[in-house]
Amino acid sequence: AQTVTQSQPEMSVQEAETVTLSCTYDTSESDYYLFWYKQPPSRQMILVIRQEAYKQQNATENRFSVNFQKAAKSFSLKISDSQLGDAAMYFCASNPYGNQFYFGTGTSLTVIP
Amino acid sequence: GAVVSQHPSRVICKSGTSVKIECRSLDFQATTMFWYRQFPKQSLMLMATSNEGSKATYEQGVEKDKFLINHASLTLSTLTVTSAHPEDSSFYICSAREGLAGGPYNEQFFGPGTRLTVL
Question: Searching chain A, which residue's CA lies closest to the CA of residue B34?
Answer without folding.
Answer: A100
